[in-house]
Each structure stands twice: as structure tokens, then as C-alpha cells.
Amino acid sequence: MMPFKAPIILASGSPRRRTLMQEAEYNFEVITSTLAEPEMKGDGITAAIWAETMAYYKARAVFEEHGNAIVIGADTVSVHGKHVLGKPKDEADARFMLKEMFGGRNAVITGVAILAPSPAQLVITHVTSSLIMKPMSTTEIETYIASGAWQDKAGGYALQEGGDTFVDHIEGSHSNIVGLPMTQLACLLKQVNDLL
């Protein structure tokens, strides 16, 4: 692991992103953004733009208080057809999302934003992976909802919490589907660190 010229902060309360960073052996601190996540509204806003925008605002909220650090923000959305699936509001919303997702191809998009000091830097990008799901019965959906595993997850779904049994296959970055594209993140962090 290369030495970093500034402390690294992950501006996310997601335990999945924290685990990915720990597994990659980054030395970092977690400071959760207090940004309230609005619902995606408006024509012409693509899922990728939305994910990048939310990642930026999460990172920015933390960077304003910790401007001497490299701050990483991320936001993940799932897309099925024309439906952008963020985090479900309740069980009914989760049920709708799961019925949409299962038995088809879904795009999982994670926006990543990095802010760094001296000189002021901002890097924003997104990574898209495809998740092809097996069909899921009504009973299986209800069992999954009852487990609570849908809470606080884009699309109401998490690979790492038992949901992988419904996956046919993945195309692209596995860690992106979990919530943080680690290969791309490493490249971005090196780019930012080289300029400090």
C-alpha cells in the first residue's frame, strides 16, 4: 500500500463499504455524512448523474469540516429497465423493487467522488456492473423481506447478506455491486495522491 500524503476519510456509514476498504488495507477513518438523501426526481437526470451527484454531496459535507483530508463519497443505485431503484422506504417499496429486479438484468451504478486538499482537487466518476438474477417466487420474496436484509440497500438487495443465492451471474466489478468499485478507487486515489 502506497503512503498517502493526507489522511483518508470514508464519508459513508455503510458497513459494506467499510469492509471493502479494510480488506484493501487502507488506513482510513469513517465519518458519516449528515446529508439527507432526497428522492430522485426530474426528467433528464440519469441514474449515473444522480449517483455521481449524491456521492459528491456526501463527500462535500464531510470535506467542509475536514479539509485537510482525502474524502471519499459514494452512492449506489440499481436500475431495472426504466426504473431507478434507490433504498426502499418501507417493506412495500422493497417488495416492488425485488419483483422488478428478480428474473432479469439489472445495472448497478456506483458514483464515486473524491475531494482532496492543496491544491484543491475533485474527482467524480461512476462504475456500472450488471447483475443477472434468477427468477424468485413470491414465497422467496416474502421470506427475504421478513429477514430485513433489504433495509438500507439500493434496490433492497445485498449480495453479501444471503442474496447471492438468487444471482445467475455478474458482469463487471463485484465490489461495485457491494457498494464501492475498489479497482477504480485505487486508481483514483493514486491520481489524487500524486498531485498532493
How much β-strand is present in the residues?
25-35%
The number of E-state strands comes to: 7
Distance between the termini: 17 Å
Mean pLDDT: 87
What is the level-2 CATH architecture name? Alpha-Beta Complex
The secondary-structure class comes to alpha/beta
CATH class: Alpha Beta
What is the CATH third-level topology name? Maf protein
* Helix-strand string: EHEHEEHEEHEHH
Outline the structure in words.
By secondary structure, this protein is an alpha/beta fold. It has a single domain (8-195), classed as Maf protein (Alpha-Beta Complex). The protein is 34% helix and 26% strand. The chain contains six helices and seven strands. Strands 1, 2, 3, 4, 5, 6 and 7 form a seven-stranded mixed β-sheet that branches. A hairpin with a 2-residue loop joins β3 and β4 (83-85). α3 (91-101) packs across α4. It starts with 7 loop residues before the first strand and ends with a helix. The relative contact order is 0.18. The model has no long low-confidence stretch (mean pLDDT 87).
